[in-house]
Specification:
Structural class: alpha+beta
Helix content: 25-40%
Largest sheet: 8 strands, mixed
Strand content: 25-35%
Number of helices: 6
Length: 180
């Protein structure tokens, strides 16, 4: 049985996808998810706070992102370069700390296939979503493809995720923390 990543890869490489060639691009994909634990104390207040945070986050992302998609649990955005993806992730991390809104953030780099209605899919997109779904606050999870280039500013550290977290997610990934 194929994994979801293998199925996406097979579709992206399928000969019938040639007519979509102009819609398959390399891009950085960012996923932001609101921490579910924050909803347990004051559900209504947390929803309002999350909505306000999403609005501020979208305003922050608009100058950097190629496209932005808002969903009930967070935001998904796509960027032309790895550096824009890293800059956006770090800006969202700072906004989260400033506004005391716990979020998980993950980014990946790879081929994505665009669809109407501002949606897209790709292996790294799927991996970033999974890392955000199981991520931790106050850090950014990133795929190994995202971290290959020198995209991290001075004062920001990148290190491999602990084995326990890799087993939970299902593949190796990196953690980025801002020490500035």
């Amino acid at each position: 049985m194929l994994s979801l990543d293998e199925m996406i890869a097979k579709q992206l490489l399928h000969p019938n996808m040639d007519h979509f060639a102009d819609q398959v691009i390399d891009s950085a994909t960012l996923h932001l998810r609101h921490d579910i634990k924050s909803l347990s104390n004051d559900f209504g207040g947390a929803l309002v706070q999350n909505h306000l945070f999403n609005t501020a986050a979208i305003l922050l992302l608009e100058p950097l992102a190629m496209s932005i998609f808002r969903d009930p649990m967070g935001i998904k955005a796509r960027f032309e370069t790895k550096r824009k993806g890293v800059d956006a992730a770090l800006a969202l991390l700072a906004l989260s700390k400033q506004q005391h809104v716990p979020v998980t953030i993950a980014i990946g780099w790879g081929k994505t296939l665009s669809f109407p209605e501002n949606t897209w899919i790709g292996i790294e997109d799927h991996q970033a979503r999974r890392m955000a779904d199981f991520g931790q606050t106050n850090e950014v999870s990133m795929t190994k493809n995202m971290a290959e280039a020198n995209t991290v500013p001075e004062g920001v550290g990148v290190f491999e995720a602990k084995r326990e977290r890799v087993l939970l997610i299902g593949y190796p990934f990196l953690i980025m923390k801002d020490y500035r």
